[in-house]
Write a structure and sequence with these properties.
Number of strands: 11
Oligomer: single chain
Strand order of the largest sheet: 2-3-1-4-11-5
Radius of gyration: 20 Å
Low-confidence stretches: none
Shape: elongated
Helix content: 25-40%
């Protein structure tokens, strides 16, 4: 008997794009396209059960086993360092994590660098690798305003086109890491539902020509 695979999808445009890929790969679930308030959608014939979660929660659901597989941005994986398997880079949702600051800013390294970010662990690891003394300022909203108002010297954030930065007289200074969507798996699930998970993974790879 085919085992059901629980799949955590990130809410938003990325999740919708990922579901379209899974659908095109042969793991459709028609009820997910309907206008309703359901939280869980399943197709017993295909052996899949989908649910939408906040993007930053995908790794938690997968790590804890509530989801067998999920799709998470590389930024979330690096920030939370979950104990999971990374199965495939889907090559979508591409952007980069970068340091940005005012256009005239130059880090002279003669004091503590104030860094505003939503990603304190990524920022800390990056500057630790440079033996740079920093003060992390954790923010949750738009952080571009932090250096403008003098709250921070630089920001560490996701950059896609850079348009928002340039419109606020900021610019990228250093790239930290490239970001894209990663197919991840719970370690126990991967052991006991290996055939089913690999079947989904291979179908997605084939669909995307990976």
């Amino acid at each position: 008997m085919k085992q059901m695979i629980n799949i955590a999808l990130p809410k938003g445009r990325l999740g919708e794009k990922v579901y379209s890929i899974l659908e095109a790969s042969g793991f459709e679930c028609p009820s997910i396209r309907e206008q309703n308030r359901k939280l869980i959608f399943e197709n017993e014939e295909k052996g899949v059960r989908y649910f939408w979660v906040k993007p930053s929660d995908v790794v938690i659901y997968v790590e804890r086993g509530a989801a067998d597989i999920g799709i998470a941005g590389k930024d979330i994986i690096l920030e939370y360092s979950p104990d999971i398997y990374e199965l495939a880079d889907l090559g979508i949702g591409k952007c980069r994590m970068a340091v940005a600051a005012k256009k005239d800013f130059c880090d002279r390294r003669d004091g503590v660098l104030r860094v505003a970010t939503k990603f304190p662990n990524i920022a800390r690891n990056y500057y630790n690798s440079q033996s740079r003394d920093i003060d992390i300022i954790k923010l949750n909203g738009s952080i571009e305003i932090a250096p403008i108002l003098g709250l921070s010297d630089v920001i560490v954030d996701i950059v896609e086109t850079g348009k928002t930065l340039y419109e606020n007289n900021l610019e990228p200074k250093q790239d930290i890491v490239d970001i894209s969507a990663i197919l991840i798996a719970n370690k126990v699930s991967y052991k006991f539902k290996n055939a089913e998970i690999n079947g989904i993974c291979e179908a997605v790879r084939k669909n995307l020509n990976l």
